[in-house]
Amino acid sequence: MADDWPRSAPAPLIHARLRAAPEDFVVEEQMPFTPAGAGEHLWLKISKRGLNTDRAAQILAKAAGVARRDVSYAGMKDRHAVTVQWFSLHLPGRTPEISALPPGLEVLEAVRHTRKLRIGALAGNRFTIVLRECTGDREATTRRIEELRVRGVPNYFGEQRFGREGGNLERARAMFSGADTSGDRKLRGIYLSAARSWLFNEVLARRVADGTWDRMLEGDVMILNGSRSFFVPEAIDETLLRRLGEGDIHPSGPLWGRGELPTQGRVRDLEQAIAAEHSGFATGLEAAGLEQERRALRVIPKEIEAEWFDAATLRLRFSLPAGTYATAVLRELADYRTEDHAGGGSG
Predict the structure, then answer these.
(1) 253/294 Cα distance (integer angstroms)
(2) In this predicted model, what pLDDT tens digit does every residue of 19-48 receive, in sequence order?
């Protein structure tokens, strides 16, 4: 599925194996603030291996003697990885001994805070990824990494957003058609997100194909780096082009919902055409009550580092904003294969 969307560069320069072991995909959350040190919520910095985030939350709830609803986190993390992330437990007036945790789950830090963690309350994630069994042009790959440092990559949603073999999209279609009336609120949110992400990726794919994903077009809506705030330029001038080149602003694509598109001209025509091609998703999202929002078409990895351990092993380190995917970076560098699971490291 993800391979159907075009890359910004020529074909990947190396072939590689990803996630040969969980330690080959390490993710650490970067928080935008420091917990207060007091309050009725106990924040736990957790290292986990071989567990998804929801399962880790269930285990922590049982260990602390609280209901699952009293455990919160900022972002979902992959099971097939080593991840360091924060959880909050609503524990007014008591601090339980959380010790009998299963292998693969460890408390690294505990601190009090006045509020619980909420989804999306992240500055970003820091990735350390090892690609093994690499074959291809090492020098050209290193040069491309340097290009990504400046130009960035297309900000595709990762394949896990759509479920195994696109199952979340099929369930979204069933939900919108009325065939699926299960009413599970959590699953409904997953299916809505899948449909919305698909429409965005389709728009982005067209912009990548015509080479405008990182350019400012007349009628574009520009989004501020690291923010959901956007604006519609009255005209493209040297100041805006400089800010675009510096990564301060990015062209954006639609997160579909009710309301009028803020884009104009041929940019709006493209976005409306994609919505018409996938009208079941577009109308379903509108009927579900979601509002039009925007997402950057590109993401620029920060503090990117690359080290060849040997001729066939490449380690990459980089940081990405919350809600973006490591696979968006990897697919621009390598044609990689994984074990029998999906993942991409967002949160």
Answers:
(1) 6
(2) 999 999 999 999 999 999 999 999 999 999
Pairing status of strand 25-30 against strand 82-90: parallel
Together in a domain, 167 and 251 = yes
Residue partners of 309: CB distance under 8 A and separation at least 6: 130, 315
pLDDT of residue 12: 74
CATH code, domain with 227: 3.30.2340.10
Whether 40 contacts 114, CB under 8 Å: yes
273 lies in the same domain as 163: yes
Lowest mean pLDDT among 43-57, 93-107, 205-219: 93-107
Taking only the tens place, the pLDDT of each residue in 116-161 is: 999 888 999 999 999 999 999 999 999 999 999 999 999 999 988 8
Residue with tokens 């577009």: 282
Question: What is the pLDDT averaged over residues 270-280?
Answer: 97
Predicted pLDDT at 343: 43
Same domain? 43 vs 74: yes
Q: Which entry of 24, 78, 214, 220 is annotated as an active-site residue?
A: 78
CA atoms of 15 and 205, how far apart (whole Å): 22
d(CA 127, CA 194): 24
Q: How far apart, in whole angstroms, are the C-alpha atoms of residue 250 and residue 241?
A: 10
Instruction: Mark whether 131 and 203 lie in a shared domain.
Output: no
Host domain of residue 161: 155-299
User: Is 101 in the same domain as 84?
Assistant: yes
Q: Could you confirm whether 78 is annotated as catalytic?
A: yes
CATH number at residue 327: 3.30.2350.20
